[in-house]
Amino acid sequence: MQHGALLLALSKDEQIIGIGSGTTIEYAVEAIGQLTEYQPGSLESNARDLCVKYNLELTSLDIHHKLSVAFDGADEVDESLTLIKGGGGCLLQEKIVASSAANFIVLVDERKCSKKLGTQWTKGLPIEVVPMAIKPVQIRIKEVFGGNPLLRPAGTKMGPQLTDNGNFLLDWHFDPQANYDWHKVEDTLLHMPGVVETGLFIGMTRKVYVGNLDGSTRILGE
């Protein structure tokens, strides 16, 4: 992805920048690190190692509760710029950072773009759930929506994966051919006792930078 295209998204007034933990986010961090006017700026970040690598000062939302702009990746983005995020398990903190920014900009490669959610990202919609509610929430999702909400395993050790907040993750495998109203889906999920957050990011971004496989960049939402 071209750094020049990313830098066009920034203005000189945007000193407090949010950085998520998506796999493409290093492009943004590297580009920001090249701008001397941003060196004294601060970031709210789940990607602390990257920020340290590029000499960007860290802060927190306790200190800077309003961000000028936030950058993050996505697991999938559809034609209406609705996102699925949370493949890495940081959906709650990423949504907090994104919602604290006046401008939320998403960076993906072209393989993450689809007409309908679930066609490119086939690992399910991440849903963060408090541990004691896992089974009731699984049952309720099946009753309301069908599909298969699976408890995400830790992978490198026994047991389920823990989020940064000590919760479990369900990956809801839904029918990508179904015509879901994602606003209603999210509202229904968030009203299930025990559900903390979902990986649906609806209406949160107005601009998505897409890195094409040929090295060029295009912008969705303009």
Automatic annotation (TrEMBL):
One Gene Ontology cellular component annotation held by this UniProt entry: cytoplasm
UniProt entry tagged with the keyword Acetylation: no
Signal peptide boundaries: none
Record keyword Isomerase present: yes
GO BP terms, alphabetized: D-ribose metabolic process; pentose-phosphate shunt, non-oxidative branch
Record-stated family: Belongs to the ribose 5-phosphate isomerase family.
Listed name of the protein: ribose-5-phosphate isomerase
Native source organism of the sequence: Opisthorchis viverrini (Southeast Asian liver fluke)
